[in-house]
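Hey, I'm writing a tutorial for new members on how sequence and structure tokens pair up, and I'd like a real worked example in the thread rather than a made-up one. If someone can provide the structure for the chain below, I'll link this post from the tutorial.
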Amino acid sequence: SSGINAEYLNIMSIKELKSAAKRERSMGGADQASKRAKITVQNGAEVFQETGMSGSKNVQVYKDRAGHVYAATLGHVDIAQGKNSYYKLQILKVGDHKYELFRAWGRIGTTIGSSTFDSFFSPEGA
């Protein structure tokens, strides 16, 4: 029969997950620790690292009056073809009157991909 056999499922507690992560870090040494990304939250949302603007005090992810954050990360996994792709969108408010539509796409685990910016003077245009 197909499906998941319940006796092989292993649900780990938070303590077990932390312990496993600690073991993995110790086995990888400093190299693993240096690969971690630093996430900077501005105005309640992360400015994507790929923008090159993360951490800039002049840049924030656009939020409308209702508090909706204009950022999305989409993923597509095709197990049969071994592809794991992503697409990122984000509207950034730069200064007081400039908006940038940031788009990035590629394959996870490879250097395949690209990104682009489009400039607008209003969030509706972006």
